[in-house]
């Protein structure tokens, strides 16, 4: 779990606690920040033109953010009764560790995420999109792992109703496979499809049958006739009181999304419900 020193980290930690409550888990808290040479590049003044006092002030601010991230993680870990452990082998069902690294954020999160089962990331109140946010970019495009994006207050019941955004894409199938253990704990499952495409509806019906064969909660298909799939998905999730959304991310080319936007970008910017996604 990347902990960025943002107020939104608290909600992501709370959701993490709910996720791991019924399984043997090891939670890795990671605070990673760009080297100061990267942090000041591209601004009004490059680092070489900044006075030592300004650079010292910037570094002090960065250290304060790191301390806030560390304290947030430790308070959660202690309040949750989770043991700190640097190596496997203990008897505890739940354990945690903390790491702080100064490196390129997207690259470091990408590398470390590849040896995790899931990356849990807080969505802060700032403008949030994968092409421009280093943490999300690294988690989504570089890890090959599912990402759980947590926004706003934790849901009252994470596993009450799960909404699966289904467009019959490889990315949607990847997200679905990553979510099996979570969907198995859901009390209700809703399959959302956008538009009135007959082939997509047949695919959604096959997904309903597949879930039934797995012995999961009965699934229903909800379609939305509008062409704004992102808004439709969130509207259905809110109407159904969903605690979790599962969806593929960037099913079309990234260039298309950069130019035209898309469902993924809309969800990033507007969701208040935890979203498990995979690319």
Feature tags:
single chain, 279 residues, alpha/beta, seven-stranded mixed β-sheet, three-stranded parallel β-sheet, 10 strands, globular
Give a written overview of the molecule.
The structure is a single chain. The chain is globular. Helix 1 (9-19) packs parallel to helix 3 and helix 9 packs across helix 11 (263-270). It is 42% helix and 20% strand. The protein is built from 11 helices and 10 strands. The two termini are 18 Å apart. The chain has 279 residues and is of the alpha/beta class.
Give the termini separation: 18 Å
Strand content: 15-25%
* Relative helix content: 40-55%
Strand order of the largest sheet: 4-5-10-9-6-7-8
| Overall 3D form | globular
- Structural category is alpha/beta
- Total strand count, please? 10
Q: What gyration radius follows from the Cα positions, in whole Å?
A: 20 Å
The helix count comes to 11
Largest sheet: 7 strands, mixed
Question: Could you list the spans in which at least 5 consecutive residues all have pLDDT below 50?
Answer: 255-261
| Global mean pLDDT | 87
- What is the N-to-C succession of helices and strands? HEHHEEHEHEEHHEHEHEHHE
